[in-house]
Amino acid sequence: MIGSKPKVIVIGGGISGLSSAFWLMQKGIDVQLLERDSRAGGLIRSERVDGFLLDYAANCVFNYLPEVNFLCHNTGLSSQQILRQESAKKRYLLKDGVATPVPMRLKEMITTDLWSLRGKLRALLEPFIPRASSESEETVSQFITRRFGAEVYERSIEPYIAGTLAGDADKSCLKSTFQQFAKLEAEHGSILKGVIKRKLTGVRTACAAQVFSFRNGMGAMTEGLKNYVGDSFLPNSTVEGIEREGKQWAVHSDVSGKKKIFHADAVILATPAGEAAKLVDPLSKNLSILLKGVEYSPMVVSFLGFSRKDIDHPLDGIGCLFPKKEIDFNSLGSLWTSTLFEGRSKEGTVLLTNYLGGARRPEMPGKTDEEIIALVMEDLKKVIGVKGKPVMAKVIRHRAGLPQYHLGHQMFLEKLDEHLGLIPGLHVAGNYLGGVSVRACISQGKELAEKIDSCLKKRGKRFTPKENRLKRDQASQVKST
C-alpha cells in the first residue's frame, strides 16, 4: 500500500543483526528480530566469575567511526563506556622467549631489539619497492614480505593475523584483511610514503580514535541494543524456512514451541554463513554453495586470574602476541585484561585472557580444560614469570570462531552480490563480509539499512513526508476531476 510502513525481518541476534535492526529503526522501518537463543549477542557475552569479569569474544571496540558513537549515544550506552587505561599503551611481541615492546615511534623503531639491523635496513627500502599491478591479488604474507622483508612479516604481521584474527597470513587476502595497506600502495606507491603524506596533510579519521568497552563488559553493548529493539526482539525463535510470496517474504518459525509465520518486505540473514546457506538453499543452490564455502577458525579462550604478587612482569601494556617462529610456545597471544580496563579483577589480582587454536593450531579445541590450562601456564611462566597457581580459571571454546578472509574473498563478495541481486528483498549481514570487528559490523549494519531503505523507496514502499503530501494532492486532483 502506498505510504504504508514497511517491515524487515532480521534473522540472528548477534552484533550484526542487532546493528542492522538499530539502523533500520532510524529509517522508520518496522523490524522483527528473530533469535534462536534465549539471549542476544551471539558469541559476544560477558560473565562475572569469582570477582573477575570475562568477555567470551570481543573484549573492546577500537573506534574511529562516527556511526559507532551515534549508536552508543542513542541506545544509552555512552554512559556505560569506559576507556582504555593509560597503563595499557604498550604492546608486546615475543622474541626468543622474551616479551619485547613493539616500537610505536620512529626512534623506537631504530633502537628496538625486535628486528635485526638487516631487517630494519630492509624495511627502510620500502619506499623504493615498485608497486604491484592493480589487477594482482596477493596474500598478506606476500605483500608484507615484498614491501618490508621477511623479518618484519614474521616478527610483526604474522602474529597479528594469527593472534587477533585467528588466521593464516599465507592464505589471508590482503585487500580484505588490510584494505588500507592496499590503498596506500595504490595511491602513493608506498606504505611509508602514504603514511607520511597523510600526517603532513593532516588527514584524520572521521572522529577521534579511541579504545573503549563498558563497565559490565562487551555484553552490555548487545544487551543495550536488544533493549533498544524492545518487543521486536524475539528470543527462542528458530527459523525453519523462508519463501517469497509475491513481492513479500514469509518466514516460517518456531517461537518458544509455537509455529508462526512472519511476513515482511525484506529479510536480513544475520546468521553465520553456514546457517544462512541452509535457509537460502531452496531459493538458490548457487548462493547456498557460495555461503557454505566460508571457512571459520576454531578458538580457545583461557581466562586465568592470579594474585598480583605471583607475576614478575609489570603487565604494563595491552598484552603479548606469540609469533609462529616461537616454536616452543602454544599460545597465540595473552591479553592483559585487568591492565586494559578497570574493574576486570578484584583488588590485588590480575586477569589474563589467553588465546589458542586458530588456523595455526586448529586441534586445540579438542583438548581438555586441564590440558589447555597447563599449556597456557607453561607459556606464562616463561614469558611473564608466573609463580603461583591461578585463583580462577575458565576455558571457553568457539568451534567456529572467526571467519577467514582467504585469497579470493573479494571475488566471493562480488559473486555474493550477484546472486543476491537475483533475489530481491533478501540480504545478508555478518562478520564474514567486510570486517570481523564490532566497529565493522556496526558500520555494515548502517550501510545495509541505507540500501534497504533505498530499495523500498524505489518499490513504492517508502515515501518521505513531502512525497506523501504530493501523493495525497495528486489523488485529490484526480478525485476532483
How would you describe what is shown here?
The longest helix is centred in the C-terminal third of the chain and has 21 residues, at 438-458. The chain has helices spanning 15-26, 66-74, 106-111, 117-124, 140-148, 150-165, 174-177, 179-188, 191-201, 219-229, 273-280, 285-292, 337-340, 369-384, 409-420, 438-458, 465-480, and strands at residues 7-11, 30-34, 46-49, 52-55, 61-63, 81-83, 90-95, 98-101, 210-214, 233-234, 237-245, 248-255, 258-264, 266-269, 296-307, 317-321, 333-335, 349-357, 392-403, 426-428. 38% of the residues lie in helices and 23% in strands. β7 and β8 form a beta hairpin. The two termini are 23 Å apart. Among the domains are: 7-44 and 218-294 and 406-458, FAD/NAD(P)-binding domain; 296-403, Protoporphyrinogen oxidase, mitochondrial, domain 2 (Polyamine Oxidase, Chain A, domain 2, Alpha-Beta Complex), CATH 3.90.660. Mean pLDDT is 93; it is low at 462-481. It is globular, with a radius of gyration of 24 Å. The strands form five sheets. The chain has a seven-stranded mixed sheet with strand order 8-7-16-17-18-15-19, with helices on both faces. A five-stranded parallel sheet has the order 10-2-1-14-20. The protein has a three-stranded antiparallel sheet with strand order 5-9-6. The protein has 481 residues and is α/β, with parallel strands linked by helices. α1 crosses α16 (438-458), α8 (179-188) crosses α9 (191-201) and α11 runs antiparallel to α12.
